[in-house]
Amino acid sequence: MSEIQLDKDLQIDLHRMLELLESSTDLEGTALVTKTGLRIASSTHASTDVDQHSASPATLVSLANKVSQGLDFGNLKQLVVTGENGYTIITTTEESKFMLLSHSKRASTLGYYFHRLSKAFGKLVALLVDIQIGEATY
Hints:
The chain has helices at residues 8-23, 50-70, 110-127, and strands at 28-34, 39-42, 78-83, 86-92, 98-104. The chain is α+β, with helices and mostly antiparallel strands. The protein has a 5-stranded antiparallel beta sheet. The radius of gyration is 14 Å and the shape is globular.
């Protein structure tokens, strides 16, 4: 059995939702990824290397959640990685098996994007509620 199996129609729906999110914002490279690092859906503009776009953020989320809980801030909701030329925003919840990754080059709209990404993430994972994730095979 592979790690995850998605119906073709569901894959198309997920892709369309990510495309719609990007077309209505300045976000780019948006992808839905399992917490084990497997990319399951992405926008057309998600040209980042698959491993960097999936496995590395999965590790960051795990570590950031431990830090957040250790500081008594509760469970991690979003993580922002700031670089010289832009931002990576990772949205997830403790109970979800998935995370939403996106990139922005504009700092002035980050607060708005936090809200939009949280809302989009809720809609995306609602479609995946019955999806089982098997053991990772690398």
